[in-house]
Amino acid sequence: MPSSSFFRAVLYFLLFLFTAAPAETPAPLRNKPIPTQIPGQNAILMGVAWYPEQWPESRWEEDLRLMEAANLKVVRITEFAWSRMEPSEGHYDFDWLERAIGLASKHHLVSVLGTPTATPPAWLTQKYPDTLRVEPNGQRVAHGNRAHGSSTSPRYREFCHRIAEQMAIRFGHNPNVVGWQIDNEYGYAQMSYDEITRQQFQGWLKAKYGTLDHLNTHWSTSYWSQTYDNWEEIPIPVGEHNPGLMLDWKRFITYTWTSYQQNQIDAIREHAGPHQFITGNLMGFFDGFDHYPITGPLTFASWDDYVGTGHVDSAYNGLAHDLTRGFKRQNFWVMETQPGAVNWSSLNNFLNRGEARAMAWQAIGHGADDVNYWQWRSALNGQEEIHGVLVGSDGTPVPFYNEVAQTAQEFAKVEDVFRGTQPVSEVALLYSYDSHWAIQFQRHTEKYDDIKLLTSYYRALRQLSQSVDVVSAYAPLEGYKLVAAPSLNVLPKDLADHLLEYVRNGGHLALGPRSGMKDEFNALLPQRQPGFLVDALGARVEQYYALEKDFPVSGAWGDGQASIWAEQLKSQAPGEEVLLRYGRSNGWLDEQPSVTTRAFGKGRITYIGAVLDDKLMASAAEWMTHKSGVTPVFGPVPDGVEVSRRVSAGKQIFILINFAQENRRVALPRSMKLLLDGKWADSVDLTPYGVAIALDR
Ligand code: GLA
């Protein structure tokens, strides 16, 4: 006899079919200009990192000719060229650069200038050793790698300001320079562990807390005799330390790199025309600093999308794109991506043929307006000699060049319809660096990985909604039908109020495990989880458990397993409904609620107290999207096919990509124009890594 879970599965399938009708008309757009699309240029662009300083000038023309032939439109240059632009202190040489930019424009390529502050020249670091970073072990780094400058050194900042300023004076009004990249990957957020930094950290704490009493109270320093009697006693944490101190150190790192960046932005803005954008190349889920404040002053966010070993995980990569789009809640650029292989991973395998093209289109689908390969051609010597390239050491194209050329040609062919378009979602996932760090500091089980959990929510929710925003927990939430926050560990009162307002006004908030445990000082809240949201939820966490093995759970979402983490929920108020319960497990959890939900205000709040297996996560997502009235943007697609949508008034574009290793047929919800082959169709056949762009208006 079929089990009750069988009937539930059938029910959910029917519900999915019922709700799976695609949105007929595009959802209303948040009306913001799209600064990622450069006036006068194609709406979607492709480019490369190019290093003219590494080659004789006589070679440039051939490089640029080959780029133009491949339909590349952007060169990012100069981010490591300091010694060439300022060969000795105060002597600048930009003539060569002006010629390179001019020659690029002759080949219809615009330039993005990187400030070269990731690589201070030897004359600088030798004459002023205080500009070099000090490692946690007290040793100054040696010259010859990169990111060796000290982001806290006032002298280093002065040099950074000067070179950025000189570049801006010379190129701030050059019509062929469309924008700027500050530094390169923000020195991987590495800090200098020197006295200057320590003093700055102490000063920052003083400005934040005002009195030591205040600081001592919030950090609970009576624990282990940590009490501070003067600011100079406070150390930079190395290794494990007080959680309040550790979280503030992370925030100080964020502050340091934000002001390091601002120093250069100020230098550029004073001299550059307003048409030139300023961005920085971030790194997906890199967590050295909080990306929301650091992207605040940028025109738009960019990121470097590398796979490393293996092949692209379309969900994880899509999530990283959406994370980047969420930093400023607008389109973004992929400033660098992998030309087949990298040189820094454990196994630098090559992407399969067609995989990079699929990745480039995926980026566009998720809201990128430019994709640049790193790099055009390797220097003949240097640390990255054997990284992937478009042009070999002999200066002629490698086979990968053709795949880039094909993709860039497709970009150029269809670019116009992308003008003014962006993804729009009804579902948001909340991400919080504070919560991420708080959990990292005290994982409790090494298996608890909040990014993996976020990815499992994303996978399940995106499959159904086909468009998900990833935004800061403090982002405006009106307009979202469903907001899910797995692992929102740090949930102070102001954030709880913000979330409650969303729920009161009709939103559905779903919290995942470990939520609502800490305040902004990384101290335990004097309430049980989820802290300030207990009353609205009508339930609280009685006790939590790191699991050494999986435990059964069952209920409205079916039967399955809880793994890694389980919380025992208890009803606190009428109206709360239990959706899942643990089965026989460790005695404590037996028959106890694992997931509860409650209507509150005009909306609903749901708490998921365990890490659920994939099947349960899928039915959780079905229940959440259905309950919240979320509609898929396109409708059913076969397994392994990713669909993304970009919207502008009166039209929507669907980007369909087959990440499965077999052919797939996708039925279109209605007849649409397939832009790559120019035909109208009701369905489309996709080979592995196949891409179709369907215009619906
Ligand atoms: C990074 C850097 C580039 C280059 C590539 C290699 O992301 O920004 O300069 O080193 O990696 O993959």
Note the topology:
Blueprint: H1 4-19, E1 45-49, H2 57-69, E2 74-77, H3 82-85, H4 95-106, E3 110-114, H5 122-127, H6 154-171, E4 177-181, H7 195-209, H8 212-218, H9 243-271, E5 277-279, E6 281-282, H10 291-295, E7 302-305, H11 314-328, E8 332-337, H12 355-365, E9 368-373, H13 399-414, E10 427-431, H14 433-441, H15 450-465, E11 468-472, E12 482-485, H16 493-504, E13 508-511, H17 534-537, E14 539-546, E15 551-555, E16 558-571, E17 577-582, E18 593-600, E19 603-608, E20 610-612, H18 614-628, E21 641-648, E22 651-658, E23 664-674, E24 679-686, E25 691-696
Parallel strand pairs: 1-2, 1-9, 2-3, 3-4, 4-5, 6-7, 7-8, 8-9, 10-11, 10-12, 12-13, 13-19
Antiparallel strand pairs: 14-16, 15-16, 15-17, 16-20, 17-18, 18-19, 21-22, 22-25, 23-24, 23-25
Helix pairs in contact: 1-18, 2-4, 6-9, 9-14, 12-13, 15-18
Alpha-D-galactopyranose is lined by residues 184-185, 304, 306, 336, 342, 344, 374, 384, 387.
Walkthrough of the structure:
This protein is α/β, with parallel strands linked by helices. Helix content is 32%, strand content 21%. Strands 10, 11, 12, 13, 14, 15, 16, 17, 18, 19 and 20 form an eleven-stranded mixed sheet that branches. A nine-stranded parallel sheet has the order 5-4-3-2-1-9-8-7-6, with helices on one face. The protein is globular. The structure holds alpha-D-galactopyranose (GLA). The site of alpha-D-galactopyranose (GLA) has 10 residues, from loops.
Fraction of residues in β-strands: 15-25%
Portion of residues in helices? 25-40%
The whole-angstrom Rg is 26 Å
For the largest beta-sheet, the strand count, sense and barrel status come to: 11 strands, mixed
Helix run count: 18
The whole-number mean of residue pLDDT values reads 95
Low-confidence stretches: 1-29
> Structural class per helix/strand content?
alpha/beta
Ends apart, CA distance between termini: 48 Å
Bound molecules: alpha-D-galactopyranose
Strand tally, please?
25
Anisotropy-based shape: globular
